[in-house]
Amino acid sequence: QVTMTQSPESLSVTPGEKVTIRCTASSIISSSYVSWYQQKSGQAPKLLIYRASTLASGVPARFSSSGSGTAYTLSISSVEADDAADYYCLQTHSSPLTCSGSKVKGQNKRILA
Question: Which residue range or ranges hold the Ig-like domain (predicted)?
Answer without folding.
Answer: 1-100
